UniProtKB/TrEMBL annotation:
InterPro entries: DHFR-like_dom_sf, RibDG_C, Riboflavin_Biosynth_HTPR. It comes from the Bacteria. Residues 1-170 form the Bacterial bifunctional deaminase-reductase C-terminal domain. This is Dihydrofolate reductase. The lineage of its organism: Bacteria, Bacillati, Actinomycetota, Actinomycetes, Mycobacteriales.
Amino acid sequence: MQISVDGFAEGPDEAVHWPVVDEELCTEYLSELRQADVLLYGRKTYDIMAAFWPTADLTPVSPFYVEFARFWRAAPKLVISRTLRDPAWNTEVLGAGVVAEVRRRKDAGQNMVLLGGAETAAAFIEHDLVDEYRLFVHPILLGDGVPLFRSAVDATGLRLVDVLTFDSAVVQMHYRHPERVLC
């Protein structure tokens, strides 16, 4: 998840275009995404991705855009939405029963990566469906918006796996529940 230094996943008026997006950060991000069996999105984040990545390799800014666009189109995706119909690019929509379906897939060993959506993250945290937190903290204070953690989270059991710093001043903190070691 992308968050500001003051803990917001979205800025005022649902602004989501404030995170740093550079090749160094995105290369690390893509490396992590390739380990997932499925990418999991909230509707707003999916719409942002679907508006750009399916054709980003047609007029590429860099070789990374070509690589990420090809990965994104092919990767299995789940989108949580009550209104999205007929999605493309290897995408399945989850409407009602999202928590039960994610729990079923998780119990079956599917490695899902949540790529965005403060509401989605809050629901998964509330239902104890988060095994790892990979927080990309961006060097910005938003002052207001949608917080990533809407209520207190018991972090006493989390173990720090690693911390990465990027030239853009973004810091990735990776935490894991020790009893949920992923193989």
